[in-house]
Fold these 2 entries.
Entry 1:
Amino acid sequence: MTGLKSLNKYFFRYRKKLIAGIIFILLSNGFQVYVPLLLRDGIDSLKSTVDYDQILNYALLIMGASVLSGIFRFLIRQTIIVVSREIEFDIRQDFWTHIQRLPLRFFQNNSTGNVMAHATNDVGAVRMFVGPAVMYSIDTITKFIIIIFIISSISWELTVYAILPLPVLSYFIYRLSKKIHHKFTLIQEKFSELTTRAQENFSGIRIIKSYVREQSEIANFMKLSQDYLERNMDKVKIQAFFMPILFLITGLSIIIVIWLGGNKVIDGAITLGELTAFIVYIGLLIWPTIAFGWVTNIIQQASASMNRLSKIWNEKYEIEDSVDTDHTISNIKGSIEFKNVSFKYRPDLPNVLNNLNLKIEKGQTIAIIGHTGVGKTSFINLIPRLYDTTEGEILIDGKNVKEIPLHILRKNIGLVPQETFLFSDSLQNNILYGLEDKNKETVQKVARISRLDKDVESFPKGYETILGERGITLSGGQKQRTCLSRALAIDPSILILDDSFSAVDTNTEEEILTNLKEFMRGRTSIIISHRISTVKDADRIFVIDDGIISEEGTHEELVAKEGIYSEIHFRQLLEEELQELT
Amino acid sequence: MAEVSSDEILGKAYDSKLMKRLLAYVKPYKKYVVLAIVFNILVAGLGPLRPYLTKVAIDENIANSDYDGLIVISILLFGSLIFQASIQYLLTYYTQLMGQKIIYDLRKKLFSHVQRLSLKYFDKTPIGRIVTRVTNDVESLNELFSSGIVMVFSDVFIILWILIFMFVMSWDLSLVTLSVLPALIYGTFLFRKKVREAYRDVRKYLARLNSYMQEHITGMSIVQIFAKEKSEEDRFAKINSDHKDSNVSSIFYYAIFFPSVEILSSLAIALIVWYGGGEVIQKSMSIGVLFAFIQYTEMFFRPIRDLSEKYNIMQTAMASSERIFNILDNDTFVNNPENPRRFNKVEGKIEFQDVSFAYNPDEYVLKNINFTINPGEAVAIVGATGAGKTSIINILTRFYDVPKGKILVDGLNIAEVDKHELRKHISMVLQDVFLFSGTIKSNISLDNEDITEQMVIDAAKTVGAHKFISELPKGYDEQVMEKGATLSVGQKQLISFARALAYNPQILILDEATSSIDTETEILIQKAIEKLLVGRTSIVIAHRLSTVQNADKIIVMHKGEIREVGTHQELLTQKGIYYRLYQLQYKDQEIPKTA
């Protein structure tokens, strides 16, 4: 249960409402418990009196007490359960604030689904504890105490016998719901197996059809469905006990009261009214008894969830401002230097970059080319500190990047990543993503440079067009040009393009590069590409191979060298030739 | 997220056409339904019986100091309890069993139907959506079949029984007590309606919250690159708080509803005390009746609440069943001819006669293709990406039908033969090796019982996969983890070769993988391919120099047309398209050979 301790600060934040809630519980229970006593007096009065007014009086009192109890019950939900939603909000907000600052490493090791599960299921389980579990615990305990006190004053002997079955009920509910929860997990496992199987089948439908395996696939799938059915029935076998046991035990309590209590009435030890009140009280105890078993489970699940959440809470930010950060830096000019930089993703993996040394002057355009998987993307990810170097250092304007405030560093670097990720939002909001103030002129300007403007003209809603599954799907090239616009919009001192034109046709690319030349005057740019056409005009071209710089020079120099660069150059000429054949 | 939201739109709760189709699935289980109804009538009566017995205890036993009678009543009460509990258990068990069996049947029908759909359907439909239909949508019908249909009877019977007992005991007190009923029914249905609306909001905001998180976790690098953590935090707070507010407003309805029900039942009790009490004083009613009535008021609430919940079950079921029937009504099949012609003995001759083909109307990817492959010949198809190579193998196996021209296998037009028989003579090895979860053995035999373990091993030996398979801890019984993650790309290819070989086809189609592998595996694969091609007609989409060199004939595709045909040497001397492709794709493969 230690995990749940960390919830105390949230409880403390809403202490006023919670205390009010507890008082409401006490008041509501007080009035509710008063009703059977009125019933007792009413029934007993029937034997001795013929006074209609007195009976009416009891009836009205019963109504009055119930209405008051009801009002407080309303207030309980409006305080305690509402607080549970407030706390859920806070926990989720804190969770989000936290994970936003976690390094990319975290997101690579944890699938989106996994992180989502924490934010939804685990937070949900904790809320069940904070709200219903807390409410029912207090409700149950106070109600129990008051009722036991009253009924034992009627007859303590009868109380003992009538109460006897109830702990058994609590225990059964606890055991049953635990077992059902377990069976339910087993069912979920089978269900996800079933889902996986269906998924595999539909993905591999070509193989299945070409080998004429449809029938055996159906048989396999139905075998799983059969297992699934059986697991469900396993659960049903236990779950079906729930209601009968509930009937049996509560019914048993009442029968005991009728039999023993009936005897006592005959003996004159208690009145008929008292017997009635007794039975109604037992009825009032049933729900709290069930809740007791149920709440125990909730607490256990919440505790497990809280532990999982704490694990994420304990994840380190890794990349953040530190004591070495020089907060006087408010701007970046743009010279970059790599000094003996080595990098690997995990200590147990080999180096991706090996002792790299490189200097880029402010205002220069350099290009990086090389085969897939040689470390080009890792190289540029180090500049905005998406990862930190394993060894060596990176200097910007002569300062170690770790000394530059993180948001200053990133706000001044326009990175166009290889994977074109856009938000399901309007085109305009995507382009202006990096800016705080939304300026339409900026949109026009950067879209012109990225040659996106012509495409947008054909969209009925122009820049207001919504992207993604709820709106339109852009082509690969349009996505890349939108990402480029987004990077240009922040007016960066350093622009980094990671293979950003792969889906753009060569003519458009040519135009964009011409436009960029104008835009990039005075800024530093790094262009990664597979295409010679993209890199040939760069001031300097670096060929990366196996984590090191293997060739370096201008286009002409490198073509003459007969190395990797000239090889790539030759192939691309051939490809172009082929394309032009009709 | 669009998929989720479109799936969440709920329509009407009752559609007689859909319901009729759904009930057809209940038909095989008529016996269960009858049994359940009989059980229901019994169970429903036993509950209201007990307050009546209590009345007897009070009025006759207690009033007359009859100790023994009290014991008899207690035993009767206990007996009815045991009886009710047992039947309740059986009832739950059998209705659930029926529900499970029905959804099993439905799932079988749906899955089998999807197996028959043509590739055209799979091209157009996201796989995730088909999966949802077969899994979740079928699942949401469970509740309808297991508790929905049968439990409606149960609730109605309980109410009927209570009414019978009450009216028999005292019709006028019944009327007085039941005067709260309209308010209870109205309140309950109003509550359901309000809560349903509130939940629609909750669902909407939850979907929004989830899609925001999903999207931003996926795109976290963009958030960080543009240093937008702070403003994203504010946006998240807005969405998070909409979600909270929608929940808080649904709390309000619950907070009103539950106490109101309690107040209503107290009102009923107060009425009983007032009216019944008066009758008791006049000696026209016994105290026991009063007592029984107090208990009946408590019993009324549950069945009414349950009935109101059925609306939700129906609504979800209708929405799901509509989506399911949509698939079942889809008939994008590659149809078999009614009287298929049969192959005598497949030799493996393939002819394409003026074949044109388009995935989308008028966007032809193959134009006037003509070629003949003689039995036993190995033909390589080469060309740049998008030249139409894959389309040729897609139509040869009748994954798609051709709108123009004819494809003949051993002189028979493939449109006139049974497509399954045709496919049995053709084995296909695709570029992306697809392994199913299961053992290595089952991946080679694809669970075909005609393929013995010995045949699996022989095939593996022939392609050179036996060595690494036997080195695995469980050999051929080793589990292939999700999509074969434990095996290397090359090993997976060898397994797919073994698969093709085990089926010993007359015609082999091979789409060679482009991905580069280590030299050792590369040599294994080259040898395996040579062995695969022996003694059968084969078409290879070639990416290996050795394959094109060994081919009897090379067909060069370019932009949907055949541009050059000949052997490796012939084509090289032509210095046409092939010559360039050779330099681009095959030339540097010479290096490891000489090295």
Note: Confidence is low (pLDDT under 50) at residues 1-8, 591-595 of chain B.
Entry 2:
Amino acid sequence: MQEGAVLELRGISKFFPGVKALQNVDFTLRAGEVHALMGENGAGKSTLIKCLTGVYPKDEGEIYMAGHDKAVNIRSPQDAQNIGISTVYQEITLCPNLTVAENMYIGRTKGSVTHWKQMNRGAEKILSELGIPAAPGQQLSSCSIAVQQMVAIARAVDMDCKVLILDEPTSSLDESEVAKLFNLMRDLKARGVGIIFVTHFLDQVYEISDRITVLRDGQLVGEYVIEDMPRVQLVSKMLGKELGDISGIKEQSDASVDMGSVPVLEAEQLASTAGIKPFDFSIHKGEVNGFTGLLGSGRSECVRAIFGADRTVGGTIKMNGKPVKIRKPLDAMKNGIGYLPEDRKLDGIVGDLSVRDNIILALQVMKGFFKPFSRAQAEAFADEYIKLLEIKTASSDTPINSLSGGNQQKCIVARWLLTNPVYLILDEPTRGIDVGTKTEIQKLVLQLAGEGKSVTFISSETDEMLNTCSRLIVMRDRKVVGELKGADLNQDMIMATIAGGEAQ
Amino acid sequence: MKEDKTLLKKHGMSDTNTLLTITITVFVLMYVFAMVFLKGAFLKPQTFCNLLNENAALIILACGMSLVMITGGIDISVGYLTALVCMSCAVHLDYGGGSVPTAMLLALGIGVAFGVVQGFLVAYLEIQPFIITLAGMFFAKGMTTIVNNTQFNVAHEGFQALKATRIYLPVGSVNRLGNYVPAYVEIGVIVALVVVAVLFVVLRWTRLGRSFYAVGGNNQSANMLGINVKRNKFYAHLLCSILASIGGFVYFLHVGSGSPSHASGYEMNAIASSIIGGTLLTGGVGNIAGTFFGVLSLGTIKNIVSSLGLDEAWWTNITVAFMICLFLIIQSVVLMRKNKKKV
Amino acid sequence: MSTETKTPVRKESRSIGEMLKGLVRQQMFIPVAALLALVLFNLIADPSFFAIKLGTNSAGDPVLTGYLITILDNASELVILAIGMTLVTAASGGQDISVGATIAIAGSVMLRVLCGANASSTMQAPIWVAFLICCVVSMLFGAFNGVLVAYLKIQPMVATLILFTAGRSIAAWINNNQLPIISDPVFSYAGTFIPGCPVPTPIFIAIACVAVIFLVLKFTNLGLYTQAVGINAQSSRLNGINPEKIKFLAYVILGLCVAVAGYIKVSRFSTINYSVVAKDIEMDAILAVALGGNALGGGKFNMAASILGAYVIQFLTTTLFKFNVNSSALPAYKAVVVIILVVMSAPAVKAKLGSLHKKNGSAKPAKEAA
């Protein structure tokens, strides 16, 4: 083992039927460092981590840990925990029916008796230290997703670990929570814990990491010290190509939106059961606008209300000046609205169905129960969009859940493009997908606008919003608090509006 | 600290406790209703004791069922397993020259055998529990008739003595002749109460019990949290079958005979009791105390129906079904409301 | 030299392995394999199993007899139920355990309409009226289950436990616990033979039902919607499907299947015994779905595999009867066969077998080289 290393992976390979997910990957983690693991979707980051934590058995290679003479044999998450590797996964891996405290301690306490008092006391201490707004005795499912993720992190850091793996832990956290997490990571670093950090947010990588390892197509590209690695170079390493078009796409879009015309869609005092304050909204032909705000500020709830995904409890919607009634998603679809939901796995894809069925689903539903497409027709549609959006899939018969995240998202985009909507809502289309696809999607949005479609674009990454939107609606605490356009469209102004107008 | 207290209050009880409260409330209301409006037998302590005597076996079976249901599984073999245990023990005692202790061992052995096979197939080969225990049910049903095809009463003396043992309680009632008659329970009731108490403690305070809840809540998460999901599923099925064999012996002790039609429909009664007791088939939510009251509720409603003079068999079934229906709707509405508030 | 011989051997063994694997992964593999195994067993044990004879029945009409005919005839109700059960399983991710009890209700309603209040043995109403009423009632009971599952979000097995408990009692109550007998031979045509036609009528009814469901699956989106709802109800809703309606519809369709099966059942005997009619048929119907390789947790389904599964079950039952297995001990043998089948089809076992094969494949050339 190398000097100062706590963990060393040598020649790890993992094969899935028909796919080489990892080929001969080396990875070294030193004590007291934050090591970012980067790569596009499908590059093999998650697979590497799952091999390391014993969720998947590895097919080849060895794992060495400081303090163990021989290669360690990790066959289950329990083994990993026992030798000092604790993990926070991208998706929440806690039990919703247990209490917060139990979720923090279960599976890692010795003895066969549960000491509730002791456990609750311990949990309360950690929760208050980390400033997590949850009670130890509370049932986990009654906490928000962000709090659940924080609990998972609290569990991982409380274990006396030598290696902490954070697999995209920040995707459901807002900025203040991310800041808290980073403080915690610095603390642990000082204590000599090695941290593996996986994320898609470049800013966060540069803020906290010491070293970067880049994977591509299941192979190791290289290990770099952060100072020697400018952003553009990192991105090109991840993509495997030089690219100059990541920024400045906005220039292509023309400001030819006629704001004086009758809006394509106009909502007045719309409110839904999801608990947003009544809001007004309008969008014109060829316009791209967006909702911004912190997590939980109600941006998704607004578009859900427009699409009829949540039941509306007040307000009116007009399309092209004519009032329409949108009670359920089908009404919205019939009026030419498309909606790509925030949660791809839960609301977007239909897992076991083929790529083809997933693509034609919305159009098929609009066509009607008694008028199914012929097989040939469906295949023609699917093939057209697989080609158009460059969806990487073995065939249109492949089940969608065997595709990578980015390609799944492209299928959902294809689904809505196929319905030829006049107004398309994209809620976090770029979450959890690789940089290449992110840029492609942003370009697509501007292209659609150029074709005269209206698009609402929501993203947690303000950069992306600034790249694509000509108007931003700012939300705070489930309320619209401002609207920015033209010269006001910049980071500082957005921050100021989110923070409360008069600040700065 | 203060903040946490208010948080707790705001978020209210866990799903398990909410459902348990409903169950106990309904049972108490029902029994009080019977005591006030139907008077008669319901005022006698013995009626309550008989409720226990009649249902001791079912209580044990339902407890096992709850364990499996909490881990997200199901075991529909328990009813016929009971019949198999009764028949095997009866044959063993009367024709096999066995004694009561060897009969008990035989019962336990049958339970362990079923539990090991079913548990292994469900947990380690990951076959749907419904199918496996369905096969188990078929197997037990067929085996019972292979062991002996007709009903017969057991004449074994030691067994008869045990069967007749009564434990008198310090409460009682005055009979028609004016004599004081103390209320009694059978041995099976003691066994059932011990099972309930032990399992209650296991589920609440031991790692095994909490792991059952975790596995039922989300088995992938449980695996990631370092819980051995397969082993816990295996244990749950093993325990359920062992409890079914204990319940089977208690049933045997109560009826004193072997018959292929013994305990027919008990698997569904056990499931129904668990549900009434607030155990969800989806797993992760449930309570042994609730199951206990679930069985009593089921028994009480049957008593009420028969004391109302609706003697035809169908009325019992229809009211029981109606009651399950009512409970399901209450639970579904309460949980939906609770979850809606959260958002 | 050694390298030259090595490559082709490895290639061959791998392609055979892959072929086998591909075959095993096919959903139809299990029911087809089970059917072949049963056929083979009977061929070896007693080839006369497959003999079909043309004889005459007591009324002097020509009828076909033989074990194969018995299998096709007796499987009819099961096949019809398997159709509905497959849809219910796929859409709601659970099973309806009340079908046996609701068959009793359907049969009871039919007899009540035909015999009138005082259970006279001559028919008081045309059969088609009775059948229509029976269909409506069965669909209403299906709708009851559907409401509980789809709208009140109760798990299917639990929701249908209600009718499972009460069904047979309701059936008895409908006819005041009497057992009306219909003497008119026309009524028995559906369950036995139509004079002049040597093939039992239930076979035709089952074929008709299968044809109808395949036409429905071809000319509507029932299949796509059901699978989408079963896999991801939330996402289906956002694509304009009403998941509740689809689940509800599945239960109503199963209700209709129950009505048809109930008609056949009462027609076979011209009477009904509430406590034993179609007893345990729900278990067989669920087994048919599972044997067809359909996930009992819902989602994708293969209707043909379910239907084949139903015939396999009946084939097994009839085979056991033929070998003089006592009818009450039959379940034990059935259980053993079922366990063997599901263990064979278990993913864990398949994976083990697959890796074993791989090992053998790679071990061979090494030995040869040595």
Note: Chain A touches chain C at residues 307, 309, 328-330, 333, 339, 341, 346-353, 357, 361-362, 364-366, 368-372, 415 (CB under 8 Å).
